[in-house]
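quick q for whoever's on today - can somebody do inverse folding on this one?? i tried earlier but teh output was garbage lol. tokens:
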């Protein structure tokens, strides 16, 4: 449709501008523009004098149905990020006059979906493209045959992920696509967030507020003010970490072990930070200075040259920026695509054109490998750092109770060292803690709340804890908390590692809790001490009858550790035990475990 000067209130120049703009707008942009004009303070007085007559003439036509101001926000969250963003979105929308319900997907009755008119989905992706535990049932329902038609639904999806994984934001993408297939209409386009999600999440929320406000005319305030209405967070947070002093750094492994596991104690004095067992500590590490110097040398750059590191215009020397601000050890396909576009190197374009070759290449390589193989590139330091990801925090399960250790937080960190593609490699944060961190040094930290991994409210509820290796960390915090509270419920720990003599993490503490009755039962598996490797799931099977009795008594099960292998095996073992001891079919046993998840009696902190 073209605006004509003769039949519009616009002059020729204005009409030309509008005719160029309107065809380029998306539906959500048109809705936003309509709402913005409707909410403009001048809208009421700028209408032509013929408006009353026009309204009277149009009276016989039926008015458009009112748009609901009820908004449902469902989150699927493994570590708490999606939950926190959902709660923030809820408070923002409430301040705009909407009636908001925020819920975990596991707490939402799928059959009620047909009643929802405005739906926001905030979902992380877990592992290799899987939904988080508290989203599994809802995800299966939505993608199953029982999913209803949703022609009256308006929705938007915020997807959280990590671009270093092949199936980046896969769960959010699947929700977005499926809701459209079922007839839903988008309030605002889906936004896919990498580890540095704060800015894109805020932009998504602004778009959602604009879209909802435009459709409902719920708010006369300019939509761009939405982000200012968000809840006030504590002084120290993910975006404003606290510099915590290192009090202790102890190697938990004995002499002769091929592992190094660090127990690190940090002071929270003066921070006001609090946490509960099951929460995680976010640590912002620094890159290895040796690797940074080698990278700068490979480019032939001056380490003292300055670069701007953010939109606020903050400036650092190139060396400091690469040390503290940017990720240089993890390659992703999106990063290689940006480097190829920036440099124009044909070999890089050929590499990223083959998905299998890219997948093989990025495994065990870092930025230095790229520069050494395809560079040096004729680009400026500023242009190059502009394509890098910001340094993401590393999350570690907290290994202490605040009640038992006031103004302190403890973590358990396994040092990562390996050789790949002809070079020795190391974990960024773990080797910083193992090799370069001393008592008195400072670490930037924040608390990551995790409501999906919490002790039962009733202290008499039996608990079963399964945590080999560094997966033991949160259960140390559980036991400290239960000891302080005088909890009388039964507690059973399954722990495993390589060797009893050198790798029994926190051994004396576990033995004391057993002696004092804080811990009822402990089973251990040291895989390299026997001819056949024995793992925690084998100990579970050996105790299958008693373990099932605990489940029947209402015990809560907690699993922490490696997601790909251990957690997968433990999950299948639980199903096998229920099937055998409960005299059930496989399908019935799987439903039993699913019901436990729904009841929050089966929780996992896996990575």
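ok took a stab at it. sequence:
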């Amino acid at each position: 449709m073209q605006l004509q000067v003769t039949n519009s209130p616009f002059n020729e120049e204005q009409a030309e501008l509008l005719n160029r703009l309107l065809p380029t707008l998306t539906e959500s942009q048109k809705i936003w523009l309509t709402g913005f004009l409707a909410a403009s303070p001048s809208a009421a007085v700028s209408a032509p004098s013929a408006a009353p007559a026009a309204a009277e003439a149009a009276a016989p036509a039926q008015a458009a149905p009112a748009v609901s101001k009820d908004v449902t926000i469902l989150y699927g969250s493994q570590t708490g990020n999606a939950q926190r963003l959902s709660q923030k979105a809820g408070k923002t929308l409430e301040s705009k006059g909407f009636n908001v319900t925020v819920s975990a997907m596991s707490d939402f009755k799928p059959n009620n979906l047909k009643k929802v008119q405005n739906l926001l989905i905030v979902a992380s992706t877990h592992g290799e493209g899987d939904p988080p535990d508290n989203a599994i049932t809802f995800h299966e329902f939505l993608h199953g045959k029982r999913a209803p038609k949703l022609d009256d639904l308006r929705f938007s999806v915020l997807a959280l992920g990590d671009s270093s994984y092949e199936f980046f934001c896969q769960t959010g993408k699947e929700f977005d696509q499926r809701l459209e297939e079922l007839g839903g209409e988008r309030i605002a386009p889906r936004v896919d967030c990498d580890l540095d999600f704060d800015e894109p999440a805020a932009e998504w929320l602004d778009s959602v507020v604009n879209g909802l406000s435009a459709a409902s005319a719920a708010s006369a305030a300019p939509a761009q003010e939405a982000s200012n209405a968000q809840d006030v967070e504590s002084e120290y947070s993910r975006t404003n970490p606290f510099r915590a002093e290192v009090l202790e750094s102890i190697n938990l492994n004995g002499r002769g072990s091929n592992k190094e596991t660090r127990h690190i104690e940090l002071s929270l004095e003066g921070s006001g930070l609090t946490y509960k067992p099951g929460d995680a500590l976010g640590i912002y590490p620094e890159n290895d200075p040796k690797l940074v110097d080698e990278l700068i040398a490979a480019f032939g750059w001056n380490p003292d040259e300055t670069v701007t590191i953010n939109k606020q215009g903050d400036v650092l020397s190139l060396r400091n920026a690469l040390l503290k601000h940017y990720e240089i050890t993890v390659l992703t396909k999106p990063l290689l695509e940006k480097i190829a576009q920036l440099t124009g190197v044909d070999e890089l374009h050929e590499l990223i054109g083959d998905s299998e070759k890219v997948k093989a290449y990025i495994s065990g390589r870092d930025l230095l490998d790229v520069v050494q193989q395809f560079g040096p590139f004729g680009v400026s330091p500023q242009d190059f750092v502009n394509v890098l990801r910001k340094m993401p925090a590393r999350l570690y399960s907290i290994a202490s109770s605040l009640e038992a250790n006031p103004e302190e937080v403890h973590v358990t960190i396994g040092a990562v060292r390996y050789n790949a593609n002809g070079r020795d490699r190391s974990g960024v944060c773990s080797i910083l803690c193992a090799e370069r961190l001393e008592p008195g040094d400072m670490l930037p930290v924040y608390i990551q709340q995790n409501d999906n991994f919490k002790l039962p409210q009733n202290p008499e509820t039996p608990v079963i804890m399964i945590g080999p290796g560094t997966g033991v960390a949160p259960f140390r915090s559980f036991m400290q908390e239960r000891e302080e509270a005088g909890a009388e419920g039964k507690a059973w720990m399954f722990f495993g590692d390589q060797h009893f003599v050198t790798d029994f993490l926190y051994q004396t503490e576990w033995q004391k809790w057993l002696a004092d009755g804080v811990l009822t039962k402990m089973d251990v598996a040291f895989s390299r001490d026997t001819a056949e490797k024995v793992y925690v799931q084998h100990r579970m099977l050996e105790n299958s009858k008693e373990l099932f009795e605990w489940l029947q008594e209402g015990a809560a099960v907690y699993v922490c550790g490696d997601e790909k292998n251990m957690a997968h095996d433990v999950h299948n073992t639980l199903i096998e035990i229920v099937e055998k001891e409960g005299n059930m079919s496989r399908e019935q046993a799987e439903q039993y475990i699913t019901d436990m998840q729904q009841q929050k009696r089966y929780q996992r902190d896996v990575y």
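fwiw Residues 38-64, 218-233 have pLDDT under 50 and may be disordered. also Residues 53 and 59 are 10 Å apart (CA to CA). so keep that in mind when u check it
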